[in-house]
């Protein structure tokens, strides 16, 4: 269980996270939605300590993130896979080297073992013989899949997805959403997804969190979000769900 309590973060006068409280259950898919600039990415960065809060706490299974020593922090980071926006692959490395990267950083697996595991992860994300290609030689959808293969390289407990389907066509969007669901089911991971894809969120989420000006406007099952009588939520989902222009 991840427990976030009274989290505040400002950049100068821009008070981005405003006393955010949130519990995220293990093994589930939590999708975070909300308008541009509402603080979704900032929240995600706090979870892996890429950003420090001004005040408030984040606990993973009772362990407070800010109080970990460097060894605990290294172990902690090992439990995370992250699929960044734009996939964030290393351009000068091949697909195989990209996926092998976390394995080399965090494990003592042999070269042969790493090679076999890279193949296994590529199979999981439905990619064929692309090990020797460079990211620039792949389509955007393929790069996302390689990014996902890298995110699950060392079977993390948590996977964070930052807008995994932004910029993809509807078919690729569906297929990446399917992959997120399958990965969650196969690896039993806790998945936290930031998304602008409301339809996808309603289909795959166990729980949807809506952020609004750095606080939580609503949290609930897809059904609860759909049935909410809050005007801001309704106008946020109107275009995608009701097809309103
Ligand atoms: N490193 C930073 N320095 C200064 N301001 C920042 C920094 N990172 C984020 N912000 C500000 O924090 C606010 C929230 O940004 P964030 O990226 O979390 O939004 P978001 O909800 O993910 O938006 P989007 O859906 O457009 O990606 C914005 O006003 C942004 O300008």
From TrEMBL:
Pfam families documented for this protein: ABC_tran
MF terms in GO: ATP binding; ATP hydrolysis activity
Stretches assigned to the ABC transporter domain: 2-238
Protein name per the record: ABC transporter related protein
InterPro entries: AAA+_ATPase (IPR003593), ABC_transporter-like_ATP-bd (IPR003439), ABC_transporter-like_CS (IPR017871), P-loop_NTPase (IPR027417)
Keyword Cell division: no
The entry's keywords: ATP-binding, Nucleotide-binding, Transport
Coiled coil: none
Domain of life of the source: Bacteria
Organismal lineage: Bacteria, Pseudomonadati, Chrysiogenota, Chrysiogenia, Chrysiogenales
